[in-house]
From TrEMBL:
<keyword id="KW-0902">Two-component regulatory system</keyword>
<feature type="domain" description="PAS">
    <location>
        <begin position="201"/>
        <end position="237"/>
    </location>
</feature>
<dbReference type="InterPro" id="IPR005467">
    <property type="entry name" value="His_kinase_dom"/>
</dbReference>
<protein>
    <recommendedName>
        <fullName>histidine kinase</fullName>
        <ecNumber>2.7.13.3</ecNumber>
    </recommendedName>
</protein>
<keyword id="KW-0808">Transferase</keyword>
<dbReference type="GO" id="GO:0006355">
    <property type="term" value="P:regulation of DNA-templated transcription"/>
</dbReference>
<dbReference type="InterPro" id="IPR013767">
    <property type="entry name" value="PAS_fold"/>
</dbReference>
<dbReference type="Pfam" id="PF00512">
    <property type="entry name" value="HisKA"/>
</dbReference>
<dbReference type="InterPro" id="IPR003594">
    <property type="entry name" value="HATPase_dom"/>
</dbReference>
<keyword id="KW-0597">Phosphoprotein</keyword>
<keyword id="KW-0547">Nucleotide-binding</keyword>
<dbReference type="InterPro" id="IPR035965">
    <property type="entry name" value="PAS-like_dom_sf"/>
</dbReference>
<dbReference type="GO" id="GO:0000155">
    <property type="term" value="F:phosphorelay sensor kinase activity"/>
</dbReference>
<dbReference type="Pfam" id="PF02518">
    <property type="entry name" value="HATPase_c"/>
</dbReference>
<dbReference type="GO" id="GO:0005524">
    <property type="term" value="F:ATP binding"/>
</dbReference>
<keyword id="KW-0067">ATP-binding</keyword>
<dbReference type="InterPro" id="IPR029016">
    <property type="entry name" value="GAF-like_dom_sf"/>
</dbReference>
């Protein structure tokens, strides 16, 4: 058992036995600070909050597509800053998690902020590791950070995302970012207190440091600057700072304007090689009794940090490829089930000639699915043909009858437009119908009825295909997320079926509408234009 498990287990036990909490209750943080107290506290940490926000906003940019919320607290757990994904922010707002309140174990239960402060270690709490069920869909990562000058605990920086995006990699990423934040806070604090007489100490830092007089003549170029830039100090003294393009340009700007430059990022190419480094630069004007006497530049090699971001991106790509492959298997399983069911019937001497036609059609659909997977991510292409919409429904129902019997489901068809023709890709529309019918089967574990209806909307010149079940239904939040890649309401679902269905219907210039209520079943409407040539 690792430290995480021990900490979480102890916290949950305390919540249950000491605080008498109930997991299915919704926690709510109590208001802690007044507006003025919050303002005063934020003012005390204004530099730290600025540094944290700069680096964490960069982190959010690199994690594009992953809903992420950042929360910064002080060493007592009071929230000082919240920013990031709006949907997650709205969720935590509903719990009273806003600036000024305090993350307290006895109010919110087992949480990463309280554990990180208590044990002064980075902590991850994923899904059901939270005490309260309401947070079972959240993945939270917290890391403490300190004042570098005296190692006193400042507070925590936390990342929050949804459980389906959870990854142990994020805790390492957050810890690395906090290490960078701590180093940045250290440098800013040192630079504030630095006096010209302390220049002898500058070579002890791993940060590149450059100093000039007010005419731009080089006074100092430390060993770390040599290592980062790849140019010897003597060479810079002879040729001047101008040979280092970006650093020279920013330094001249500060000398001319007496304005500081902070957090300037740029790529620096090492000599004539193809290798480059990502640098983060600050340049400050130096004053003595109100008179500018020179410029002080510090720069850090951020290459490893950027490479870490790239590794995260590559990791997500590999994860996506794996999920796409699983999605293909999920889609191929549908026609395979139909083929297996029909072959079993044929073995029982229940042979019908049309079974061979259906099997052939399903094999062709599997071939189409493989082709679709190969071209996944490209615009969906469809091959339209004129077909009878009633016949298409009838064929699909025939395919699903064996599967329906296995689930104790009865299928009914209500069609008022039996001879209506529609111009569609019948294989892909059949794929959509099968997917929604299978979802309906799975939503009724004890069996039930499914009704397929076809109606004509003469006013809008549309066909409405309705698939209605008597299943468990969905919440509004679940309905709003339908169609998003990898979102699923199933315990073992992959979230691949519906995005494919949405792509197919959109390619037909149609739309999908859902009407669902928890415990009262779901109605799915496939809306297709009548004239779609």
């Amino acid at each position: 058992m690792n430290d995480f498990d021990t900490y979480i287990r102890a916290s949950k036990n305390k919540c249950e036995t000491t605080y008498n909490m109930i997991p299915n209750e919704v926690p709510f943080l109590k208001v802690g600070l007044t507006k003025q107290e919050l303002q005063n506290r934020k003012q005390r940490f204004v530099k730290e909050l600025s540094v944290v926000q700069h680096f964490m906003q960069k982190l959010i940019q690199y994690m594009e597509g992953i809903p992420t919320l950042i929360i910064t607290t002080d060493n007592q757990g009071y929230i000082l800053d919240i920013y990031g994904d709006q949907s997650i922010k709205e969720m935590v707002d509903s719990l009273g998690i806003t600036p000024g309140v305090r993350f307290n174990e006895k109010d919110v239960g087992t949480n990463s902020v309280s554990l990180a402060l208590e044990h002064q270690k980075p902590i991850a709490i994923i899904g059901k590791e939270h005490f309260h069920d309401y947070l079972s869909e959240a993945a939270c990562y917290s890391s403490p950070f300190c004042f570098s000058t005296n190692s006193s605990l400042v507070g925590t920086v936390s990342m929050m995302t949804t459980v389906n995006f959870a990854s142990n990699f994020y805790l390492g990423l957050l810890s690395s970012a906090v290490d960078t934040i701590e180093r940045e806070i250290q440098l800013q604090e040192q630079n504030h207190q630095l006096h010209l007489l302390n220049q002898i100490l500058i070579d002890s830092t791993p940060i590149g440091i450059v100093m000039t007089d007010n005419n731009g003549n080089l006074l100092e170029f430390n060993s770390s600057a040599e290592e980062i830039i790849g140019i010897k100090r003597e060479e810079v003294l002879v040729n001047g700072l101008e040979q280092i393009d970006q650093i020279g340009e920013y330094t001249n700007y500060v000398l001319e304007t007496e304005k500081k430059v902070e957090n300037a990022e740029f790529s620096f190419q090492l000599g004539e090689s193809d290798y480059s480094k990502n640098l983060l630069l600050d340049v400050l004007p130096l004053f003595d009794e109100g008179q500018m006497i020179g410029a002080f530049a510090q720069f850090r090699d951020m290459t490893n940090y950027h490479e870490l971001q790239q590794k995260l991106i590559e990791s997500e790509k590999l994860s996506t490829i794996g999920k796409l492959g699983a999605g293909l298997a999920h889609e191929i399983r549908n026609p395979l089930t139909s083929i297996i069911g029909l072959t079993h019937l044929m073995k029982e001497n229940k042979y019908k000639a049309e079974y061979l036609d259906i099997i052939t059609a399903e094999l062709e659909r599997m071939d189409n699915l493989v082709n679709q997977f190969v071209s996944y991510g490209k615009p969906t292409t469809i091959n339209r043909v004129s077909c009878c919409i009633h016949d298409l429904i009838r064929e699909t129902v025939e395919l699903m009858k064996n599967n329906a019997r296995l689930h104790n489901v009865n299928i009914y068809v209500e069609c008022s437009v039996k001879d209506a023709e529609i111009y569609i890709d019948k294989h892909k529309i059949k794929q959509v119908l099968i997917n929604f019918m299978k979802n309906a089967f799975e939503a009724m574990p004890d069996g039930g009825n499914i009704c397929l209806g076809i109606e004509t909307d003469l006013k809008n010149n549309e066909f409405h295909i309705c698939i209605k079940d008597e299943g468990i239904g969905m919440t509004k939040e679940q309905v709003d997320n339908l169609g998003k890649p990898f979102f699923t309401t199933k315990e073992n679902g992959l979230g691949m079926g519906l995005p494919i269905c949405f792509d197919i219907i959109h390619a037909h210039n149609g739309r999908i509408e859902f009407h669902s209520e928890k415990g009262k079943g779901t109605e799915v409407y496939l809306v297709l234009p009548q004239n779609n040539e």
